[in-house]
Amino acid sequence: EVQLVESGGGLVQPGGSLRLSCAASGFTFSSSTVNWVRQAPGKGLEWVSGIYSNGNTYYADSMKGRFTASRDNAKNTSYLEMNSLKPEDTAVYYCAKSIRDWGQGTQVTVSS
Predict the structure, then answer these.
(1) What percent of the chain has pLDDT over 90?
(2) Sheet of strand 77-82: strand arrangement
(3) What is the separation of C-alpha 69 from the centre of its chain, rounded to a whole number of angstroms?
(4) Separation CA 13–CA 108 (nearest Å)
(5) Rounded (10°) CA dihedral 10, 12, 17, 19
């Protein structure tokens, strides 16, 4: 059974940083792409970032330069380092293996 478990969310002030983790199991993590997707209150899903099995990363324009995706295949874990956070980054953040396989999400709130 595919499982993805996000952690690391919380309340942070504008300009602050957070590091999200996505612990994976039930599939061959090292050969899988992991995407990060978020949903802000009252809004639809927004793709944030993707990290391929070879480590190549891709970001939505509004996250470039602020967010960094990484992975540790030995730990079956992907990370999303978020810096210079803005109130508009407030959302539930999900990691996903595919359209069917998502974690439960972790809440990120950016507020003073």
Answers:
(1) 99
(2) 3-7, 18-25, 77-82, 67-72
(3) 8
(4) 11
(5) 0
- The Cα 54–Cα 70 span in angstroms is 11
pLDDT in tens, 69-92: 999 999 999 999 999 999 999 999
Contact 67, 48 (CB under 8 A): yes
Taking alpha carbons only, the member of 97, 99, 82, 94 closest to residue 24 is 97
Give the 3-state DSSP-derived string for 52-100, with helices as H, strands as E and coil as C.
Answer: CCCCCEEECHHHCCCEEEEEEHHHCEEEEEECCCCHHHCEEEEEECCCC
Amino acid at 75: K
Using pLDDT thresholds of 50, 70 and 90, give the confidence band for residue 26. Answer: very high
> Residue 54: CA atoms inside 13 Å, Cβ hemisphere, count?
2
In angstroms, the CA 63 to CA 99 distance is: 21
